Amino acid sequence: MPESETSRIDSGTDSGVDSGFECVLRAWQAHEAELLGFLAHHASEADAAQDLLQEVFVKALRQGRGFCTLDNPRAWLFQVARNALIDAGRLRRPSVELPDDLAAPPAEERAPVDELDACIARNLPFLGEQDRDIVQRCDLEGQTVRSYADATGLSLPAAKARLLRARKRLRDALVERCGVRFDPDGSVCCHAGPDGA
Fold it and tell me: Is the sign of the CA dihedral 89, 92, 97, 102 positive or negative?
C-alpha cells in the first residue's frame, strides 16, 4: 500500500457507506500480524496476547468514524496495545506463599499487654462517665484527641489532660483489680488474669 493510503485511511467504504467499520477493518488487516507479534513478545502467555489483541480491535471499532480520521492508525493501534499490556500487568498481582516461620505466633505467645483486653473491658465500667468516654473513643476506637476535643467542646489541652487523668485511673484499676505489674521501663510484664486470680 502506498504511504499516503496507510497513513490516512478513508472514512468511506467501497460502497460509499460511511460507518467507519471498513476503515477499521482495512487498518486491522494491515497491522494485525504485527500487533500480535508485539503483544506476544510482551505478554506473559500466548493466550493473553490473543485476548489483548481482541481488546485492541474492540477499542478500534468503538472509535467508529473517528478512527477513519486518524493521521496514523498504526501508531494509534500500537498505543492502545501498549496501554492494554500495562493494564494487564497491573491486574496480575504476584502472589508468594509466606514461609511457616513468618506465620502469626500462636495465641499462647501473646505479649502480656495484649492479654489485658478482658481486664480492660471488665474495668471500664468502674471509671467515671467522662473517663470511660474518652478512653473508649480515643484509645479503643482510635479517635484523635483533637477530634474528641472538637466533638465535646473542649480545648485541645483540656482534652489531653482529661485523657491523661483517665488513663492513670484506668491503670490504677488494672493494678488493683487485675494484678498488673510493670517492668522498670514501664511496660506491662505480667498480670493475674481477667478474674484477678
Answer: positive
Report the chain's terminal Cα–Cα distance, integer Å. Answer: 92
Q: Are 116 and 180 in contact (CB under 8 A)?
A: yes
- pLDDT of the residue at 190: 60
Question: Burial of 128 by CB count in 10 Å (0-12 exposed, 13-18 middle, 19+ buried)?
Answer: exposed
Judge if pTM exceeds 0.70. no
Spans in the chain with pLDDT lower than 70: 1-20, 91-116, 182-183, 185-197
- Residue that is last in its domain, among 91, 126, 145: 91
CATH code of residue 155: 1.10.10.10
Whose cell is 492494554? That residue is: 84
Q: Which of 63, 91, 119 is the last residue of a domain?
A: 91
* Cα Rg of the chain (Å, integer): 34
